User: Which sequence fits this backbone?
């Protein structure tokens, strides 16, 4: 094969973001003196997007997964003194917890803007079945519901599984595999 033909046959493979439709939504209420409208977290593709609903603007985009779509998204209550909250994102068989922090920065004497940061706290071990829902239990535990109808309780402080409850009911998944 000639060099010119070989050059035409080479592939240009590169990684890029997974684009997709909105698959998860969560409101985040800031103190009323900072914003009269809630902020909106939106899962789309493998990213979480943060919107300021008062200005109708996207503030920031956060890459959460590589090649995995965001399926669920929850936020803890915002700590009004630190302007921080916990955010938990799930996709396929993965769950990640983050700390979302806001800082109000003055641009001038009359204008301020929010600086936002999302820091990974923990990436839970991969589950054997798809994660369908996640809820906060108390201050430091997560209830994780999976597609085999099992529920797992994860302690975020100890980074360990506290409880796993299998379901006696058959799931759609078990019917399809037989």
Assistant:
């Amino acid at each position: 094969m000639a060099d010119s033909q070989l050059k035409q046959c080479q592939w240009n493979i590169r990684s890029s973001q997974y684009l997709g439709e909105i698959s998860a939504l969560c409101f985040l209420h800031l103190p009323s003196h900072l914003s009269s409208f809630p902020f909106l977290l939106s899962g789309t593709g493998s990213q979480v997007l943060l919107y300021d609903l008062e200005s109708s603007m996207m503030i920031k985009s956060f890459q959460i997964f590589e090649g995995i779509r965001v399926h669920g998204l929850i936020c803890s209550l915002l700590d009004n003194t630190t302007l921080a909250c916990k955010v938990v994102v799930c996709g396929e068989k993965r769950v990640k917890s983050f700390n979302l922090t806001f800082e109000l920065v003055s641009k001038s004497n009359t204008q301020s803007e929010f600086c936002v940061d999302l820091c990974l706290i923990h990436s839970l071990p991969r589950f054997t079945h798809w994660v369908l829902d996640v809820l906060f239990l108390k201050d430091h535990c997560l209830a994780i519901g999976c597609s085999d109808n099992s529920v797992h309780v994860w302690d975020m402080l100890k980074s360990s599984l506290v409880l796993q409850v299998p379901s006696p009911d058959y799931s759609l998944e078990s019917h399809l595999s037989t």
Notes: The first strand starts at residue 22 and ends at 28. The mean pLDDT is 85.
